[in-house]
Amino acid sequence: MDFPPVKGNISLNRGLNELTWLRVGGPARTFFQPRDKLDLKYFLSSYQCDQPIFPFGVGSNLIVRDGGINAVVIKLGGASFNYIEKRGKFLACGAGALDSRVAIRAAELGLDLSFLRTIPGTIGGAVSMNAGCYGSYIKDVLVEVTLVTRDGLEMRLDASEIKLGYRFSCIPEGAVITEAVFDAPSRDAGCLKNKMKNQLETRNKTQPATERTAGSTFKNPSGFSSTGRPDDLNEMKAWKLIDEAGMRGFELGGAKVSEKHSNFLINQKNATAFDLEELGNLMRKKVLQKSGIELQWEIIRVGIKK
Ligand SMILES: Cc1cc2nc3c(=O)[nH]c(=O)nc-3n(C[C@H](O)[C@H](O)[C@H](O)COP(=O)(O)OP(=O)(O)OC[C@H]3O[C@@H](n4cnc5c(N)ncnc54)[C@H](O)[C@@H]3O)c2cc1C
């Protein structure tokens, strides 16, 4: 297979299990780490093939299936995608920068992006997923996003153009986000430091954050009316429905529903992606039987079953 002469690294059949938080998954048929944005644009404009493009952050929201991904997986690394810089009153971040680093740097500058402190992904993944917690979301602070399309063209879009919703965005198919610009509220740096310390403590108490997991498995079903009346909408918590279905602590193969937080799946004993996905599907089935509610996956499942 002929690849364009890029400056970054290209490899074939690169195992993704070491790169995902769940530590499962087969190989990427093609794996590309561009040196910088020019390299990425050059690769995408000159490499026309029938494989889709799959941008990859740090795999903190993914189950990569055991048969791998038949795609060009693109991972942004290195200094040219990791910058965090003040531009006037805004903060511009490379899409490879870790959310936690962005929150810490923002706080040093007196800007409140503290909700990113406990999210273990990258800025590219956070924009794509409209990540959020503690009542704040990327949508609240995003001003503009830069991406490179499947054809290698650079585009700058206003935040409104990507239509961010609950764990949802309209990023063009195959496009790779390279930068996000935020307008964050100003706050005292010391207060932000304390706020993030408290958030970390709370997270460590309530979530299995040091285990092999991918965060919330299912979205919270919102807008659900338990009485059938449209004026009686309430937000249901996925973990509560899972508890009510008796699934907390349930095990399948090497996969387990966390005892600490029942909306988290964990890879406790060398689980396969199959174990984890099957357990998730079983949770959905049990919740549907118990409460009549169909949980929707929040974890993105990609690739081929073995
Ligand atoms: C312990 C734990 C706690 C978590 N807590 C939270 C939380 O509080 N709130 C929350 O929202 N999430 C949470 N998550 C889930 C996860 O961290 C977020 O969804 C995160 O935004 C995913 O980022 P990532 O870089 O790992 O993306 P990945 O998991 O690698 O990919 C996720 C999606 O983003 C796309 N993507 C990644 N990078 C790019 C890019 N550069 N351009 C275009 N698309 C891209 C991928 O194609 C994929 O569709 C948690 C996960 C864990 C493991």
Architecture overview:
This protein is an alpha+beta fold and 306 residues long. Helix content is 26%, strand content 25%. It has helices at 37-46, 79-82, 99-108, 123-129, 138-141, 189-206, 238-244, 273-291; strands at 9-15, 27-33, 53-56, 62-64, 69-75, 84-87, 90-94, 132-133, 136-137, 142-148, 154-158, 176-182, 224-225, 233-234, 251-252, 255-257, 265-267, 300-302. The strands form six sheets. Strands 6-7-12-10-11 form a five-stranded antiparallel beta sheet. A four-stranded mixed beta sheet has the order 1-2-5-3, with no helix packed on it. Strands 15-16-17 form a three-stranded antiparallel beta sheet, covered by helices on one side. The longest helix has 19 residues, at 273-291. Bound molecules: flavin-adenine dinucleotide (FAD). Residues 21, 54-62, 76, 95, 118-122, 124-126, 128-129, 131-133, 171, 176-177, 207, 209, 213-215, 300 line the site of flavin-adenine dinucleotide. Flavin-adenine dinucleotide is lined by residues 21, 54-62, 76, 95, 118-122, 124-126, 128-129, 131-133, 171, 176-177, 207, 209, 213-215, 300.
